[in-house]
Automatic annotation (TrEMBL):
Native species: Cellulomonas fengjieae
Matching Pfam families: LacI, Peripla_BP_3
PANTHER family in the record: LACI-RELATED TRANSCRIPTIONAL REPRESSOR, LACTOSE OPERON REPRESSOR
Example of a GO MF term: DNA binding
Alphabetized PROSITE patterns for the sequence: HTH_LACI_1, HTH_LACI_2
Protein name according to UniProt: LacI family DNA-binding transcriptional regulator
Length: 340
């Protein structure tokens, strides 16, 4: 037996052409092989212990065995939990995940989609809220349309505004439920660390939280809504802004947990005690909250399941119309917001 068996050896053993052997083993984007010939080639390959070349298979089929995942920040526990779900779902299908990051530059999403298209990724999952910026959205739509025209498939995690399959988190419902639960615990004076005004997820959560409190008769004043970056540093800066003003609210709601952790750091630096001096709540229930003292009240998003659902959408058979998978949220009340 030769040390290295080639595809030509398999073709000769099976009594077929090299092209037929290649299509039988590697697949083809536009040609098929008769069932009896394919069986003959596979039996010959097994006898010779031939190992197919993964790159050759990808070239023949027009797609690799990879799923591309685009996130905004690899270090953010929100995205790492989604990545865990994507990886789990891809592994079940015998696929690997190629992880890319925009590094908080939304304009890079279209660049990364084009890169994954050139790498012949079988599917792409894009995680992260959309922006109220049609120039960026139009660029991404064009990149996705180009990728899909070549046979790729896409699923989005976030607002379904790009015309592709999407996993939609119940942001507004979760934020409204949180506001009502905290109001029920006796809180009446609130402030919001609202994230960027053009970030649709941040806006959904902030607006729904304010809307629910207005219905309850305790509206949040405009000057108690502090915009910031959608990051730990953004939450820290926004909380310092509130603390410098004085006249502290009873409770601060940060529109994601990473911002809430930044706010907690600002309180520690300023000698403000949570929850004794001020209560604090977030949104997402990221995995790192288990190590936080006091335990943070939040809205749970099943992030691993979100990643799984998005991957399953991206790998499903094509559909004429975009499919939406809706994911519910759950309020989780913890020590950072005790009953007043």
């Amino acid at each position: 037996m030769p040390a290295s068996v080639t595809l030509s050896d398999v073709a000769r053993e099976a009594g077929v052409s090299l092209a037929t052997a290649s299509r039988a083993i590697n697949g083809s984007a536009n040609r098929t092989v008769r069932a009896d010939l394919r069986e003959r080639v596979l039996e010959a390959a097994a006898r010779l212990r031939y190992t197919p070349d993964a790159n050759a298979q990808a070239m023949a089929r027009g797609r690799t065995t990879s799923v591309g995942l685009v996130v905004h920040d690899i270090a953010d526990p929100y995205f790492s939990s989604i990545a865990a779900g994507v990886t789990r779902a891809a592994d079940r299908e015998g696929l690997q995940v190629t992880l890319t990051s925009t590094q908080h530059d939304p304009a890079r999403e279209s660049v990364l989609v084009d890169l994954l298209k050139r790498q012949r990724a079988r599917a792409i999952v894009i995680a992260g809220g959309r922006l109220d910026d049609e120039s960026i959205n139009d660029e991404l739509r064009a990149a996705l349309a180009d990728y899909r025209a070549g046979g790729g498939s896409v699923a989005l995690i976030g607002q379904p505004i790009l015309g592709v399959d999407a996993v939609v988190v119940a942001n507004a419902q979760g934020a409204a439920d949180l506001a009502r639960a905290l109001h029920g615990r006796g809180y009446r004076r609130f402030a919001i660390l609202a994230g960027p005004a053009h970030h649709l997820t941040a806006r959904e959560r902030s607006d729904a939280f304010r809307g629910a409190l207005a219905e309850l008769g305790d509206p949040v004043p405009d000057d108690a809504v502090v915009p910031s970056a959608f990051t730990h540093a953004g939450g820290e800066d926004a909380m310092h802004h509130l603390l410098r003003r004085g006249d502290l609210p009873e409770l601060v709601f940060a529109v994601n947990d990473v911002m809430a952790l930044g706010a907690l750091a600002a309180c520690r630096e300023s000698g403000v005690r949570v929850p004794d001096d001020i209560a604090l709540a977030g949104f997402d229930d990221i995995s790192t909250l288990r190590d936080v003292v006091p335990a943070l009240t939040t809205v749970r998003v099943p992030l691993v399941e979100v990643g799984i659902a998005a991957t399953e959408l991206a790998l499903a058979d094509p559909s004429d119309e975009p499919r939406l998978t809706h994911v519910p949220t759950q309020v989780v009340l913890r020590d950072s917001t005790p009953v007043r």
